[in-house]
Amino acid sequence: DIDADKVLAAAQSFVDLGLKDVGYEYVNIDDCWLESARDPTTQRQVPNATTFPDGIKGVADQVHSLGLKLGIYSDAGSTTCAGFPGSLGFEDIDAAAWAEWGVDCDCLSICMTDNCAIPANWTDTATPQDDDWYNSNSAVRYRQMGAALANGPVPVQFELCIWGTAHVWEWGARVGHSWRMSGDASPDWNYLMSIMTVNSQHLDTVDFFAHNDMDMMEIGNGNLTLQEERTHFAVWAFMKSPILIGTDLSQLSKDEVAILTNKELLAFSQDTTVGTPATPFGSSITSPPQLYAGASVKGTHVFVVNTNDTKSTFTVEFSDVPGLGTGSFVVHDMWTGEDVGTFKESWSVTLDAHDTAAVLVIPS
Ligand SMILES: *[C@@H]1O[C@H](CO)[C@@H](O)[C@H](O)[C@H]1NC(C)=O
Ligand SMILES: *[C@@H]1O[C@H](CO)[C@@H](O)[C@H](O)[C@H]1NC(C)=O
Ligand SMILES: *[C@@H]1O[C@H](CO)[C@@H](O)[C@H](O)[C@H]1NC(C)=O
Ligand SMILES: *[C@@H]1O[C@H](CO)[C@@H](O)[C@H](O)[C@H]1NC(C)=O
Q1: Residues 6+ apart with CB under 8 A from 313
Q2: Which residue minimizes the CA distance to atom 3 of ligand 3?
Q3: pTM over 0.90, yes/no
């Protein structure tokens, strides 16, 4: 049910809600922007003439005039998931059209290049030669699009919506900038638990221009509690998943906007000095892990995720945290922007069910 007015309303909300001010940059169009057939002469994808009367270019021009960028969606198969013309075999034609229309980002969170309607001869039925999944049929489909985009006139943010298949984390960074780690997200705690479990096992592949994508955030959807929404945002930020909002912005509560615009968590996610994410630490790592630590330009950060269904108290021994050692430390709360106090040897925090603490720990 997408149309140009909804895209432009979302772009305006970026400005009005302060999302643009804290760094949100791309307004992405998902599936269903197309007519059901390609142009018979040019073979290009054709935007729906009713819902996009000025084409994608008309929308891109207006999004650009707000100081934002536009992203678009396609599929690395014969059709998109909703049955519109997909890009497999049309990579050069589609990449050229998008560039001409002023699309800056192939990265549709829900997949710039989705993974539906794969012809039988493009599937992977066996482990590829030498166990190198870069040579799998799945990888080749995305490599074809990556090559077409690389030949274009503008740099493109390329998101591989490959649903965590074909060992994508092993080769994704050679083809694009981010890659989905699972099927589509759902707005419930079970999804958060399962994606944390999967992604925490593959954090060694994350660095600058190389991001495991845990899918668009569900903050504002379903019946996540505020604590679960805080955990959702914090985990996406400290695991350095793309930060993409997947909800009707006009329906967000003040508390939800505050979560999505938290400057210290965004700064950790977008740090220009350290590309690596926070990773699990401690002597007994649970599934999913509850304690994570990572570095930013400001120092060492600790994240405590209460995956328990009850209010729980966690104790962080400073000597267990990589990079800290022993002694006294000032603990600074990234949610509130305020120092909690000075602690010797350890720090304890009591968290509501499914809530997350996010702190910077500085030698005192
Ligand atoms: C184009 O959009 C109109 C208005 O929403 C819709 O009725 C029509 O089915 C769409 N065309 C295609 C091919 O989906
Ligand atoms: C699948 O078949 C199409 C059409 O014949 C061909 O262009 C394509 O290269 C084939 N794909 C693979 C992986 O062999
Ligand atoms: C709301 O939460 C309950 C469990 O607390 C779950 O069973 C239900 O599916 C959720 N509804 C939605 C819309 O996510
Ligand atoms: C979380 O729950 C597990 C299992 O019930 C329990 O062993 C553990 O002590 C709890 N953690 C905290 C910090 O209360």
Answers
A1: 348, 349, 350, 351
A2: 223
A3: yes
